């Protein structure tokens, strides 16, 4: 597995369990990705992605200030790939928003999330080229 | 009793033998007159009538003219002569009896009549009150009663020549008397056996003339006949009954009373007993309309009054209980209409008794639940079945509360369905609790997953920083222990969060000897999301201090001071960790996990930061964080 699409890319991490978030962030950095966050709040994340050039996102579905839905909507609006990592599964409104969402149930090794995101970024680039 | 075996023959005068010696005394004597005319008296000891003594002819004349049954027994032979009326008495013995000896005619009752006859001939009159005979007056044998008087008839010499007997039929009187006796026996029987109590009082002093068994039972004694009511029943003096009797006697007006209480005490030693009676005092009046006594008739209604009283009492008790119950209690009739709600319902819904009538009570049910309630109620009334439903009920202030309602069908002793008896409970709290519980289960699930993810992260970090297996084992073990500590503390606080001081103490406390630890700052309430990573960070700092810093010798100190400032962005926490008195510090060659954790933890946040300094006298860490969810107390 090569991480050529992740390498050098900026990935948003939104996760309110800060230890989990840090673990993901460190794993991303191991692949030489740049980490935006980790954010524990939807509001923070929305502010951070303003004008940022990001390649994708790894999101928990519930953050301190509520469901991640508005953030997911904003990312989808930008056409960015998202990998969800959740303890309880995807809520109905997110399922409706993203019928083929990539969802991993906690606990999941960060590498698996990153693999999936890398794969998604890759297929997106192939589709646009 | 003498029975005649054949009906009278009719007399044919023409067939009678002609006799020259007939007496004018026989004229107008009816059938017997004609028979006597025709009779051949020569064949009897009397001889021709022309030869009869005056006394005899006179008596025959009197006898034949009389409608009263009469006969004569004349001379030593006691020859019989009689009139038409007596022929009836003779029955079948007539007409052969004419001119025959009395004892031949009445041979069958000779024992009875001979002494009488002999007495008469001895000169003594006798009366016989009642002789019963079966006679054929109407073509069938019939009981008849007669009274006879046997009178001696004397001749000129004073000797008794014959006996004259006048009879009086007493059948009617006897029968009437017999009927009277029967009737009075019947009445007496009725009186005695009647289930109602009866007594007859005579005179103005109300003397007991008679009482029946029921009356004696009521008053509890039977030795009262001939005594006045005041004498016989002194125990009921002062209860008004004597005065009413006086009034009835004086006015002649009956007095009726229902369910009156009367208290008897048959003796000084016995306990008074209360009886309830419904009765009438009926004045008894003579032919002249004057009151001569009082008839008492009534029923002992004690049992009914007691059961009714018990019912009233149990009803009162039910109402009291129902009205004081914290539950809603309601009753319906078989058709489903509401007939009763308790006080709790009234005060809860504000509905009046008028409001709840029929289907009115359902106005308090939440419109969204109404249809379901209606259907369930209807079903329970049709099936005579239990009813159980949760629905919202409107309080007087218009807000709704969840209630749990259950009802049982009510039946009379003969099995007739008479409606439902229901009770309702305010289960808003329970509903809340259930919702909270469901939330907690979801939350727990979430938390377990999160904790596993945290443990996974800890393993990840420890792997990163461990140089060998031993340091990995201790690292993971200590970090999981720290995680467990913060979980315990959070659980104690119901996962609502924790005070900053408690977080610091949970990690540093084991190393404190009362002098090494300085914690200074206001109350800062940290949300549970912040507590776990912060505890972990403190754990890392503490571990470093124990390994290399102020806690690695005997007298190093750790001083943690913090403050909260409120700016336009919200509340800011500034925390300074300072190690004093430890070995001289060398800046680390590689970044420890604690530092990474703090820097990344806070660096990821807007307006958050962690700065590490390594002056020779001791490690210094400054943490700045924005406390959005944290609550800050006013006291230091």
From TrEMBL, chain A:
The modification 4-aspartylphosphate is found at residue 60. It comes from the Bacteria. One of its GO terms (biological process) is phosphorelay signal transduction system. Keywords: Phosphoprotein. The keyword Phosphoprotein applies. Gene3D superfamilies: 3.40.50.2300. The keyword Transcription regulation does not apply. Residues 10-121 form the Response regulatory domain. Signal peptide: none annotated. This is Response regulator receiver domain-containing protein. It comes from Loktanella salsilacus.
TrEMBL record, chain B:
It comes from Loktanella salsilacus. Residues 11-21 have a biased composition (Basic and acidic residues). NCBIfam families: sensory_box. One of its GO terms (molecular function) is protein histidine kinase activity. The keyword Metal-binding does not apply. This is histidine kinase. Its EC number is 2.7.13.3. Keywords: ATP-binding, Chromophore, Flavoprotein, FMN, Kinase, Nucleotide-binding, Phosphoprotein, Photoreceptor protein, Receptor, Repeat, Sensory transduction, Transferase, Virulence. It catalyses: ATP + protein L-histidine = ADP + protein N-phospho-L-histidine. Residues 1-25 are annotated as: Disordered. Residues 387-439 form the PAC domain. Gene3D superfamilies: Histidine kinase-like ATPase, C-terminal domain, PAS domain. Residues 314-384 form the PAS domain.
């Amino acid at each position: 597995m090569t991480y050529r699409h992740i390498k050098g890319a900026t990935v948003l991490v939104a996760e309110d369990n800060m230890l989990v978030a840090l673990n993901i962030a460190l794993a991303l950095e191991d692949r030489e990705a740049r980490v935006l966050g980790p954010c524990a709040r939807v509001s923070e994340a929305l502010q951070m992605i303003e004008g940022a050039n990001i390649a994708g996102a790894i999101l928990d579905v519930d953050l301190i200030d509520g469901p991640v839905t508005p953030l997911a909507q904003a990312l989808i609006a930008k056409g960015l790939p998202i990998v969800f990592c959740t303890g309880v599964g995807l809520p109905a409104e997110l399922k409706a928003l993203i019928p083929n969402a990539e969802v991993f149930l906690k606990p999941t090794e960060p590498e698996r999330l990153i693999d999936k995101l890398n794969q998604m970024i890759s297929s997106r680039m192939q589709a646009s080229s | 009793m003498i029975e005649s075996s054949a009906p009278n023959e009719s007399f044919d005068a023409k067939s009678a033998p002609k006799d020259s010696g007939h007496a004018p005394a026989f004229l107008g004597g009816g059938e017997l007159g004609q028979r006597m005319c025709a009779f051949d008296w020569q064949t009897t000891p009397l001889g021709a009538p022309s030869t009869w003594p005056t006394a005899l002819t006179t008596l025959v004349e009197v006898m034949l003219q009389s409608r009263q049954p009469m006969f004569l027994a004349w001379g030593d032979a006691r020859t019989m002569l009689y009139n038409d009326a007596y022929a009836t008495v003779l029955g079948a013995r007539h007409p052969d009896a004419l001119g025959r000896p009395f004892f031949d005619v009445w041979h069958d009752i000779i024992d009875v009549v001979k002494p009488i006859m002999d007495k008469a001939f001895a000169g003594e009159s006798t009366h016989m009150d009642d002789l019963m005979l079966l006679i054929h007056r109407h073509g069938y044998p019939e009981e008849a009663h007669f009274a006879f008087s046997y009178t001696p008839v004397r001749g000129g010499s004073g000797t008794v020549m014959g006996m004259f007997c006048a009879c009086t039929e007493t059948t009617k009187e006897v029968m009437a008397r017999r009927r009277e006796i029967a009737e009075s026996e019947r009445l007496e029987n009725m009186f005695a056996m009647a289930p109602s109590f009866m007594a007859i009082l005579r005179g103005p002093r109300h003397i007991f003339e008679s009482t029946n068994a029921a009356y004696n039972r009521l008053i509890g004694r039977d030795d009262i006949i001939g005594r006045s009511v005041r004498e016989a029943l002194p125990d009921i003096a002062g209860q008004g009954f004597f005065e009413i009797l006086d009034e009835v006697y004086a006015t002649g007006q009956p007095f009726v009373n229902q369910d009156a209480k009367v208290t008897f005490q048959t003796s000084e030693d016995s306990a008074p007993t209360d009886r309830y009676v419904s009765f009438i005092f009926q004045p008894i009046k003579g032919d002249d309309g004057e009151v001569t006594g009082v008839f008492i008739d009534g029923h002992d209604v004690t049992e009914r009054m007691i059961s009714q009283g018990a019912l009233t009492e149990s009803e009162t008790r039910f109402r009291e209980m129902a009205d004081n119950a914290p539950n809603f209690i309601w009753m319906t009739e078989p058709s489903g209409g509401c007939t009763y709600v308790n006080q709790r319902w009234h005060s809860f819904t504000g509905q009046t008794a008028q409001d709840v009538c029929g289907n009115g009570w359902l106005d308090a049910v939440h419109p969204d639940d109404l249809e379901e309630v209606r259907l369930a109620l209807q079903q329970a009334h049709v099936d005579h079945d239990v009813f159980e439903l949760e629905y919202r009920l409107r309080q007087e202030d218009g807000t709704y509360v969840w209630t749990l309602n259950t009802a049982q069908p009510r039946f009379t002793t003969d099995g007739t369905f008479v409606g439902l008896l229901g009770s309702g409970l305010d289960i808003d709290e329970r509903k809340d609790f259930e919702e909270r519980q469901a939330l907690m289960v979801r939350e727990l699930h979430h938390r377990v997953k999160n904790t596993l993810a945290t443990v996974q992260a800890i393993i990840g970090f420890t792997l990163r920083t461990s140089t060998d297996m031993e340091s990995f084992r201790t690292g993971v073990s200590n970090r999981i222990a720290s995680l467990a500590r913060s979980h315990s503390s959070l659980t104690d606080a119901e996962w609502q969060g924790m005070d900053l001081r408690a977080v610091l103490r949970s990690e540093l406390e084991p190393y404190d000897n009362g002098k090494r630890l300085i914690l200074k700052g206001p109350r800062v309430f940290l949300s549970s999301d912040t507590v776990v990573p912060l505890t972990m960070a403190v754990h890392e700092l503490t571990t470093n201090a124990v390994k290399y810093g102020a806690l690695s010798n005997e007298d190093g100190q750790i001083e943690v001071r913090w403050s909260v400032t409120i700016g336009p962005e919200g509340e800011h926490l500034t925390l300074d960790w300072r190690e004093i008195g430890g070995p001289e510090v060398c800046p680390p060659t590689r970044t420890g996990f604690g530092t990474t954790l703090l820097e990344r933890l806070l660096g990821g946040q807007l307006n958050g930061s962690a700065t590490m300094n390594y002056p020779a006298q001791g490690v210094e860490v400054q943490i700045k964080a924005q406390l959005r969810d944290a609550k800050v107390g006013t006291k230091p």
